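Note to self: keep these together.
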Amino acid sequence: MLRVRIDELDEQLVRLLSVRAECALEIGREKKAAGLDVYQPAREAEVLAHVQRLNTGPLDNGAIRRLFERVIDEARRLERRADTGDDEIG
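Structure:
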C-alpha cells in the first residue's frame, strides 16, 4: 500500500516539476527579450530561503536546500536553452 502511495506521489511530483519547467522556459524567453542574465543569485537565494521557511519536516532544511538547488540548476539549464532557442526535450 505504501509503495502504491509513493508511486502516486512520484507521478504528482513529475507533473509539478514539468509545470515548473514550463515556467522556467518562459522566464528564460523573457530574460532573453529583456537582455538579462539567466543566472540571478539573489533570486535563487530567495527561492531557497522560501522553501526552507515552508519546510515542516521530516526532511531537514539541508535536504530541502539540496533538493531545490538541483531543481534550480535544471531550471537554469532550461532557461539557457530558451535563450538559445533550443526548447526541445532531449
